[in-house]
Amino acid sequence: MLTLNTPLVELHHHALPRIGQTTAFKLAVEIANITAKPDARQATVEDLLHYLPMRYEDRSNLANTSMLQDGQTASMEVMVRVGGIVPLKGGRIKMYEFIGTDGIGQVRAFWWNQIYLNKVFNRGARVILYGQWKWNRYKNYFEVENPEYEMLQDEDDDIESSAIHTARRVPVYRKLGDFRTRQLRSIFHHVLANLSEEVEDPLPEEIVARNVLMPRGEALRLIHFPGDDASIDAYTEARSAAHRRLIFEEFFWLAMALGVRRGERQTEPKGELIEINDRVREAVRAILPFSPTNAQKRTLKEIVDDMTSERPMNRLLQGDVGSGKTIVGVQAMVIAVENGYQTAMMAPTEILAEQHARNIKRIIAAADAPYRAELLTGSLKAKEKRAIQSAIAEGDVDIVVGTHAVIQEAVQFKKLGLAVIDEQHRFGVLQRAAIRKMGLNPDVLVMTATPIPRSLAMTVYGDLEVSVIDELPPGRTPIRTFVRGEDRRDKIYDFIREQIKIGRQAYVVLPIIEESEKLDLRNATEMYQTLQLEVFPEFKVSLLHGRMKPEEKEAVMKEFIANHSQILVATTVIEVGVDVPNSSVMLIEHAERFGLSQLHQLRGRVGRGAAESYCILLAQYQKTEVSRERLKIMEETTDGFKIAEKDLEIRGPGEVMGTRQSGIPAFRVANIVRDQQLLQQARKEAEFMLNERRMTRETDRLISYVRSLPRFGLARIG
Ligand code: ADP
Ligand code: MG
User: Fold this and answer.
1) How far apart are CA 554 and CA 194, in angstroms?
2) Do strands 55-58 and 169-172 pair parallel, antiparallel, or not at all (unpaired)?
3) pLDDT at 430 over 50
């Protein structure tokens, strides 16, 4: 008997049809991969069963040739008469076909390139075929291309009980490595047939009852093979009872895990306390190059309250692009430094790290402050890098700026007190444990311009406190946005020319393109050449893309910042953080290819100075309804939160946040947008369990269960 905990690498010990050692191992590797388990041996039957069908098909009604309509998709039982391989195009392509009968009329089935089928379908064999049947009016029979098939063993084989792929409601899976839907379906079928009846259910009974949830084992079975009375639509739209049960559970454990993590933070003191006295206050004031907005003051105060408390800070600073998050982070760093700590500022890209380092050094110099700041990136020479690293280890560097990777990999701090992480959404799950390794138990401030809708924020950052800068620095004129078609290109160029003549600069941004699409799309290099040589020969145009060496990028940015070049053609590498206040035009090519939040980020590269700024969204080719509607939102609002909500509605969270890198835990069944209501329900129950004093025993059991789930990383270290 299999249990949910059976390792997939042992599947072949269970005598399941066609699952040998190799298959078991390959399956384990694939499942370990998608569940982010480091070792294939850790992948279990439970993990496998959470690989859900992407849709379902109703193949339950057997058709026959007398009732079949032309073009109808159906299952039919057929007996093979004659079959063979047909070479086509001089033998380069092969086709296997057979002619058979359903007992009433003749049919033909054919498959491309699957010549092994010649050995599968013997004369007289009975088979169920599922596919789209087309009437061939020259031959006068129905034929079907690449149908799903299922052999029936012998005369008294009962279709009802033996069929896996046909004559029932069947799951359709996404390809998993080399495993295609058909093989997966039969693996799932055999695994479920051998799964112990007693599937443990870790949810408390009262919660199961209160939320009218199906037992876990039943849900896992039905979600793969829905019953004959089930609504296929409910399954495909993930609102069947089986789905509800598994979605609820997924949210429930997440909510428990976040609750446990929050609780842990509250009991875990940091190193030495941070103090605010007159000297520190004066240092923070002295560093400011401008007077802060009220929102900046308020959020700094929230940060200071965290820093001076006994618990390590774990705060998210949210603020729209250009709202001035950097200086707030720098002020927090000054406070830590004045208290004798080192600090780190981590950015997702080298360009951004360099920009931060440049700004911070400038601010320090202008205030004549006695701090040492160093930039640490992958492109430093080995010798320089070592020198800086040892200065950091000695405690001689107060402020370390670098990319996330570089800082985490190679730096031993003497006394790290605060880590500021810029544009967190690029980093993936905030790995507190990793940051903790760098220092004592430092304060962590995460800054993001991604206006994460509240609905998501609670899930993604459920264990972070949130501060919001909801006000832009004074003197900004709102950016004016226009959606335009290709026919206006020349006018747009004229407009850019005018802007440059009055002293401004412009960005031209292109999407990163796949090799296969090159034909249709303008790529950055070609665009750069055209603009420089043909359109704007009187100006200097420069080019920035992701494949350039870091020092080349740096040189290009410097040139643009100094207004030695007036137009910067770039791929989306400039999306986050780049700050050149003199630029007033953002032209986005193929705007229809970008997500709204990304367009919003890009648009935020202009409108950073006092000059009126413009964002032009050039939409090429099929301006479909959806993309037109989406782009119109950009014309209508500059409110990042509104845009994010819309984006979420249109594209779903995986797309918006880029699941892998987003920090959203990869849900196996649930979808945070679609399943809002279940999320609320599950969170309420988790809070109830965690708060309820009288239920301590059960709560303890739940907490140790959730700790045992590797995906939350809650296992106690040591
Ligand atoms: P973001 O929140 O997008 O990271 P930045 O911190 O880069 O924004 O700030 C955007 C621009 O606004 C920078 O040029 C910065 O110097 C400027 N800035 C920030 N705060 C103020 C302020 N209170 N007054 C004037 N300019 C400010
Ligand atoms: Mg920024």
Assistant:
1) 60
2) antiparallel
3) no
300 Cα: distance to centroid of ligand 1 (angstroms): 14
Question: Which range, 21-25, 35-39, 307-311, has the best average confidence (pLDDT)?
Answer: 21-25
Tell me the residue type at 609. Answer: G
Residue 398 has pLDDT above 90, yes or no: yes
Average pLDDT on 144-167 reads 68
Show the domains of the chain with their CATH numbers.
61-167 (2.40.50.140), 201-267+682-718 (no CATH), 278-469 (3.40.50.300), 479-637 (3.40.50.300)
pLDDT tops 60 at residue 223? yes
Residue whose C-alpha is closest to residue 585's, from 489, 500, 524:
500
pLDDT above 70: percentage of residues in the chain:
85
The string of DSSP letters for 286-352 reads: HH-SSPPPHHHHHHHHHHHHHHTSSSPPEEEEEE-TTS-HHHHHHHHHHHHHHTT-EEEEEESSHHH
Q: How many angstroms is it from 603 CA to the middle of ligand 2?
A: 13
* From 467, 579, 638, mutation site for ligand 1 pocket: most ligand atoms within 8 A of C-beta: 579
Atom number in ligand 1 closest to CA 475: 25
**Distance (Å) from CA 667 to ligand 2 centroid:** 29
Cβ-Cβ contacts under 8 Å for 465 (sequence gap 6 or more): 302, 306, 313, 314, 315, 316
Alpha-carbon distance of 666 to 250, in angstroms, equals 10
Q: What is the mean pLDDT of the segment spanning 262-287?
A: 83
pLDDT of residue 717: 42
- Token digits for 320? 């729209």
Residue 298 CA to residue 509 CA, distance in Å, equals 35
pLDDT of 509: 93
pLDDT at site 625? 60
Which carries the bigger pLDDT value, residue 622 or residue 598?
598
Distance (angstroms) between ligand 1 centre and the Cα of 480 equals 19
Q: Residues 504, 479: contact at Cβ < 8 Å?
A: no
Helix (H, G, I), strand (E, B) or coil at 9: helix
Mutate to test the pocket of ligand 1, among 285, 290, 448 (most ligand atoms within 8 A of CB): 290
Ligand 1 neighbours, Cβ below 6 Å, are: 290, 292-293, 296, 319, 321-327, 449, 473, 577, 579, 581, 608
CA quadruple 661, 664, 667, 671: dihedral, nearest 10: -120
Classify strands 126-136 and 73-88 as parallel, antiparallel or unpaired: antiparallel
Which residues make Cβ contacts (< 8 Å) with residue 434, sequence separation at least 6? 408
- Best of 293, 608, 613, 638 to mutate for ligand 1, by most ligand atoms within 8 A of CB? 608
Spell out where 555-684 has E strands. 567-570, 583-588, 614-619
Smallest CA-to-CA distance from 6 within 26, 30, 24, 33 is with: 24
Distance from Cα 597 to the centre of ligand 1, integer Å = 20
- pLDDT above 90 for 248: yes
One-letter amino acid at 44 equals T
Question: From the CA of 423, how far away is ligand 2's center (Å)?
Answer: 7
**Bigger pLDDT: 25 vs 638:** 25
Nearest CA to ligand 1 atom 21: 473
Q: What atom in ligand 1 is closest to the CA of residue 326? A: 6
Contacts (Cβ under 8 Å, ≥6 apart) of 552 = none
User: Which residue minimizes the CA distance to atom 10 of ligand 1?
Assistant: 322
What was the pLDDT predicted at 257?
84
Q: Which two tokens stand for residue 191?
A: 């695994």
- Ligand 2 geometric centre to CA of 525 (Å): 27
- Report which ligand 1 atom has the smallest distance to the Cα of 323: 2
- Residue whose Cα lies nearest atom 20 of ligand 1: it is 324
Q: pTM (2 decimals)?
A: 0.59
Indicate if the pLDDT at residue 161 is higher than 50: no
| Closest of 348, 316, 343, 333 to residue 435, by C-alpha | 343
Q: How far apart are CA 184 and CA 164, in angstroms?
A: 11
